[in-house]
Amino acid sequence: MSDEEFEYTDDSDSLYSDSVDDDNFKIEDSLVKHDIVQYKQHTTREMMETLHKKCTKLSEVLGKPHDYVVTLLQSYKWNSEKLIEDYMDDPQDVELRLGLSTVKLNGEHHENTGLQTYTEEAPFSCFICCEDKLESYKLKCGHEFCLDCYRTYLNEKVKQANVIKCPSCDVALTPGDIDTISGTNGSSVLLENSIKEYVERHKTYKWCPSPDCNAIVEVLNSSDIAHLVDTNQIPIVICSNGHRFCFNCGFESHVPAPCNVTKQWINKCKDDSETVKWITTHTKTCPKCDTSIEKNGGCNHMTCRKCAYEFCWICLGTWDNHNNQYYQCNRYQYEQAEKNNKSAKDKKLQDEATKKSLQRYLHYYNLFNIHEISTKQDKSRCDVVENTVREVQEGVGISWIEAQFLVDSASTLLNARRVLKWSYAVAFYCDRGYSLDLFETVQAGLADAVEALSLLFEISDVEVIAKKKLNFLNASKLLEDRQRAMVLATEETINNGTLRL
Amino acid sequence: MATKRLMKEYNSIQKALSDTQEYENIVSLEPTGDLFSWCGVIRGPSNSPFQAGTWKIKIEVPQNYPIAPPKMKFVNKLCHPNVNFQTGEICLDILQNQWTPAWTLLTTMSAILLLLQDPEPTSPLNIDISNLLKSGDIKAYNGLIRFYTHKYAIDSV
Ligand SMILES: [Zn+2]
Ligand SMILES: [Zn+2]
Ligand SMILES: [Zn+2]
Ligand SMILES: [Zn+2]
After folding, report:
1. What start and end residues bound the annotated signal peptide (chain B) (predicted)?
2. Preceding amide of A256 cis, omega within 30
């Protein structure tokens, strides 16, 4: 019986074939056309419950105990169709093969199975530890081991997803055996690991990649994913905890960058990580007075504590240039790079090209990375602000709805900054031309709006925040518009064939 | 947990090695220092290209033995499809995921002896000798093994 026999990709044996309504999770989202991926959100717990329901149904069909069916199905990697097929064919063979046979083993029949107790005078001598013990467990094969050894054995085995066998032969332990021996819910740990394996083996399921989230997404039209990816559409799904990720890449949402751009960009960053390590520092010095400045929030509009000089964290230029017009620091200065390279006359042409391409890469990597760091900083700032407001509210007794705008603004900000971040990966792979000009203009607009909203989250005074509610709402609205424009501009750029991978 | 079991294994090993013919190709199997590191010596089975060779096997026993398998490694070089020629690592299922507490150090040594005569070419650690075996050139296969046996395993222990 090879593993391949258990592989199946059609949805016919989906754990959720008889599950609830489909439309439940079609979350309105201005950014992504959600109907391109039809999916369901699951949690590990919910999947366990569904598995148990499935077992109950099957136990009625087969006329066997629930416990027994769980072990059977687990051996069959939850492929109930294959199990029923084999079982109808030759039940005895299936039972023998899986160590679940109820007929006499080795010609012997062991009646007195389960927990065994002994006395000091006549203790049990355990084969595994060779010590005298008072408690043991006996399976129907007659093999008996002390509880301590059995527990150590189970602790090792539940880490794997396979059915656990007797330490001495092929007889399978049922969930009941496992729970009695472990004294806890050892069997559910095993089941959980088995579900993990199930999810990993099936292309229609994916774990949410967000750290510490163990939500699962099941895609119903998985056969469409390849086509979507080929046509530069991004199969974004949202887990039950609200995390957006790309079902194809199993990675955070990388809108507007298509999957192939994302893959190349990530690989490139991995390869070149040594070269660019120096960029990732969190501190810079004020361009005017040289005071070292640590970046606290996510905003890139910096004010030196010492000399009050306002500058841009990205280009270290004065903020004056950034205030009224669009951000210029997201536009790679080709003319500048051109000049730099021409001055290096003694260098070979090839050297220049390499240098130019490295400079270009560093430029975009720097921007990408700055926004990645800023996202984390934004996140902690938003959390702080939300918590402060909640505390004050609870003290004063205002309803939480009043401050919902903060939660919404925070999520708008985080999403938009992620879009901005990935747009730099797209820019790196773009040829220069008319559409890139458009692209960069829109990008600058988005960067501008991101920083504007981020700056609002630097306010820590709750009263000021409450007064600025309209500012939050307006900044969020603007940001959403510009984010949408960014996605459209990216589509346009890609459709114009400007992408060079 | 392991100490008592290892004591018991130690007693039965000495008995089994001196009393029965079953383990004629296991020259010795003893702890070195404490009970958690052992050394075994096996003899190449007659009627095999390993004949006349002797190999030392270094055994490390984990604290949670026999729940976890012992680590076994050839000390002097052995040319075999499932043994890494440089490091002496052995690819044998019972030393990995097929291990159960029913195995003992002695029966595991027997399993290694069986592996010598019955290689598993689908999971090779020595590609060259594996390919000879797969190509069906038994003459060359035996010849190469005999060559290395004489080079590294005569008077080696
Ligand atoms: Zn024991
Ligand atoms: Zn048994
Ligand atoms: Zn999640
Ligand atoms: Zn993707």
Report:
1. none
2. yes
Is there a contact between B1 and A152 if contact means CB atoms under 8 Å apart? Answer: yes
Residue % of chain A over a pLDDT of 70: 75
Q: Name the E strands within A227-279.
A: 236-238, 244-246, 251-252
Catalytic residues of A: 299
Instruction: Write the DSSP assignment of A198-210 as a string of letters.
Output: HHHH-TTEEE--S
Task: Note whether B68 contacts A: Cβ–Cβ < 8 A.
Answer: yes
Beta strands across the sheet bearing A205-207: A39-43, A215-219, A205-207
Instruction: For residues B144 and B142, give the distance between their C-alpha atoms in angstroms, rounded to a whole number.
Output: 6
Taking the alpha carbons at both ends of chain B, their separation in whole angstroms is: 32
Whole-number Cα distances in Å, A84 to A14, A58, A468: 15, 9, 64
Residue whose structure tokens are 């996510």: A298
| Interface ipTM | 0.78
Q: How many CA atoms lie within 13 A of B157 on its CB side?
A: 22
DSSP A223: G
Is the Cβ–Cβ distance between A108 and A232 less than 8 Å?
Answer: no
Alpha-carbon distance of B97 to B94, in angstroms, equals 6
Estimate the crossing angle of helix A175-182 against helix A66-75, to 10 degrees. Answer: 100
Q: What is the pLDDT of residues A333-390, one digit of tens each?
A: 555 555 555 544 444 455 556 666 777 888 888 899 899 999 999 999 888 888 877 7
Residue among B2, B4, B101 whose CB faces A153 most closely: B101
B 5-24 residues with CB < 8 A to A: 5, 7-8
Give CA–CA dist A145/A370, Å, rounded.
Answer: 59
Using CB atoms, pick whichever of A129, A165, A169 lies closest to residue B1.
A129
Q: What is the pTM (predicted TM-score) of this model?
A: 0.61
Q: Closest residue of B to A152, CA-based?
A: B67
Is 1.20.120.1750 the CATH number for A361-495? yes
Identify from A2, A127, A160 which residue to disrupt to test chain B contact, counting B C-beta atoms within 10 A and taking the largest count. Answer: A127
Q: Determine the Cα–Cα distance for residues A411 and A483; give it in Å rounded to an integer.
A: 13
Intervals of CATH 1.20.120.1750 along chain A: 361-495
Cβ atoms A130, B4 nearer than 8 A: yes
The full set of domain ranges for chain B reads 2-152
A444 alpha carbon – ligand 2 mean position (Å): 70
Q: DSSP readout, B96-125?
A: TTT--TT--HHHHHHHHHHHHHS--TTS-S
Q: How far apart are CA A388 and CA B74, in angstroms?
A: 65
CA A365 to mean position of chain CA atoms: 22
Q: Which residues of B are catalytic?
A: 91
* pLDDT surpasses 90 at A483: yes
Could you read off the pLDDT of B71-93 as tens digits, one per residue?
Answer: 999 999 999 999 999 999 998 88
Contact list, A149 vs chain B (CB under 8 Å): 1, 67, 101
* Nearest Cα to Cα of residue A178 among A144, A160, A145, A155: A155
| Nearest CB to B101; choose among A131, A148, A167 | A167
Burial class (CB in 10 A: 0-12, 13-18, 19+), B32: exposed
Residue of B nearest to A131 (CA): B4
